[in-house]
From TrEMBL:
Pfam families (alphabetical): zf-C3HC4_3
Keyword Magnesium belongs to the record: no
Protein name stated in the entry: RING-type domain-containing protein
Signal peptide, first to last residue: 1-21
GO molecular function: zinc ion binding
Organism from which the protein derives: Ilex paraguariensis
């Protein structure tokens, strides 16, 4: 008799859970190959509009360089020409990287990991 009561209670709870819309683990698990971001690149305007672009009021070359990851994230003047060891991030110009290394923290501006060395990149 106790087994029948336990089974009935389990069925009722299962039915109530399905009414609430609870998802099972199988429905939530994503594989490592699932895309987290869409394939097409998303460009952010940061205050520019289509009208500005058509009239030529915005400087496309510098904004494209910034979005393409070519400009230093610290000074926004010089090209990125170095990388940090051990994380390998290339986010700053060599002058800004040296300022980071001369400081107390010595942290990568991207991941905040401790920087052992800075290596200059020679891009042709």
């Amino acid at each position: 008799m106790l087994v029948v009561v336990v089974m009935v209670v389990a069925l009722v709870l299962k039915f109530l859970g399905s009414l609430r819309g609870d998802t099972t683990i199988e429905q939530v698990i994503a594989t490592e190959t699932d895309r987290l971001l869409p394939k097409e690149a998303t460009s952010f305007s940061y205050g520019t509009s289509e009208e500005d672009e058509e009239s030529g009021n915005c400087n496309n070359s510098s904004s494209e360089d910034l979005y393409d990851g070519k400009i230093c994230v610290i000074c926004y003047d010089e090209p990125r020409d170095c990388f940090f060891i051990p994380c390998g991030h290339c986010a700053t110009c060599y002058v800004c990287a040296q300022r980071i290394m001369d400081g107390e923290r010595k942290a990568c501006p991207v991941c905040r990991k401790f920087i052992n060395k800075v290596r200059k990149l020679f891009i042709a």
